[in-house]
Amino acid sequence: MTSPAPAGTLAGQVPAGPLIEARGLVKRFGGFTAVDGIDVSVAAGEAFGFLGPNGAGKSSTMRMVGCVSPPSAGTLRILGLDPVHDGSAIRARLGVVPQRDTLDEELTVRENVVVYARYFGLSRAQSRAKADELLEFAQLTERADDRVEPLSGGMKRRLTIARALVNDPDILLLDEPTTGLDPQARHVLWDRLFRLKRQGVTLVLTTHYMDEAEQLCDRLVVMDGGRIAAEGSPRELIRQYSTREVLELRLADGVAGSEPARVAELLARDARRTEVLPDRVLVYTDDADAAAAEAEQRGFAVVSALTRRSTLEDVFLHLTGRTLVD
């Protein structure tokens, strides 16, 4: 279990070291271990991400960081405090954006923020001023007097983030912040989060979108089976676990079943690795043009050859596999 917080830690004081530090952190539910001894450190002003398939332990970790689920073993410090003994003090300095919006749809946009601000002890005048400030930040000023129910998904998500900022949190926890949003709404939300980071807010998020992780995260961990499979910046992870380029070869319909495997085997000599999928062969290499030329020279039944840069999604699938996890 977690041990007492270090002596001298004061409410409202930002520690000199990491804002979040976990060592050997474990979460068990009966005989099931959801988080299996992970080490995590998040610095002030950092955007830190948890990636992983369903059941990897991301949500269980976020709930421990959010002080709503106690650790089963290991140590965890949030803002230099112990979440078991100082949960209320920590929660007062956190902003939380849950995966599903919990807005009061019967109230107006402004009322949602004002009511929430009152929970944190702000006066009515302070709450109204804070609401106006945050709605301007979230680009919702023109909808301030509208009820929440008819708003678009993107607007509701921005309102949820605005509401989470009423207490000027040191850490903002975001669980799948853009799930279900269209591309335009996602990019607007990314811009708001980038602005928060520039203002010094520490962001901790989970996401299933690899492009989102590349855009927002300074550093991240890939979790699988309750453990950390890899850690680093998006660029570092791509460099370590993938290649500079990926060649996608699509073969003609009706080719022999062994043909894709033979293509992969012959091209593997000049590639770090190859992967045979039902509709194409992936060649991970630092010179995709050379690999494509080799395929053409050998007379393979290639319909199309696409060269693209390697992405975090390639890393993710390499580390966690392509099998669907429910």
From TrEMBL:
<keyword id="KW-0067">ATP-binding</keyword>
<dbReference type="GO" id="GO:0016887">
    <property type="term" value="F:ATP hydrolysis activity"/>
</dbReference>
<dbReference type="InterPro" id="IPR003439">
    <property type="entry name" value="ABC_transporter-like_ATP-bd"/>
</dbReference>
<keyword id="KW-1278">Translocase</keyword>
<dbReference type="GO" id="GO:0046677">
    <property type="term" value="P:response to antibiotic"/>
</dbReference>
<keyword id="KW-0046">Antibiotic resistance</keyword>
<keyword id="KW-0547">Nucleotide-binding</keyword>
<keyword id="KW-0472">Membrane</keyword>
<dbReference type="InterPro" id="IPR003593">
    <property type="entry name" value="AAA+_ATPase"/>
</dbReference>
<dbReference type="GO" id="GO:0005524">
    <property type="term" value="F:ATP binding"/>
</dbReference>
<dbReference type="InterPro" id="IPR050763">
    <property type="entry name" value="ABC_transporter_ATP-binding"/>
</dbReference>
<keyword id="KW-1003">Cell membrane</keyword>
<dbReference type="GO" id="GO:0005886">
    <property type="term" value="C:plasma membrane"/>
</dbReference>
<dbReference type="Pfam" id="PF00005">
    <property type="entry name" value="ABC_tran"/>
</dbReference>
<keyword id="KW-0813">Transport</keyword>
<dbReference type="InterPro" id="IPR017871">
    <property type="entry name" value="ABC_transporter-like_CS"/>
</dbReference>
<comment type="similarity">
    <text>Belongs to the ABC transporter superfamily.</text>
</comment>
<dbReference type="InterPro" id="IPR027417">
    <property type="entry name" value="P-loop_NTPase"/>
</dbReference>
<protein>
    <submittedName>
        <fullName>Lipooligosaccharide transport system ATP-binding protein</fullName>
    </submittedName>
</protein>
<feature type="domain" description="ABC transporter">
    <location>
        <begin position="20"/>
        <end position="250"/>
    </location>
</feature>
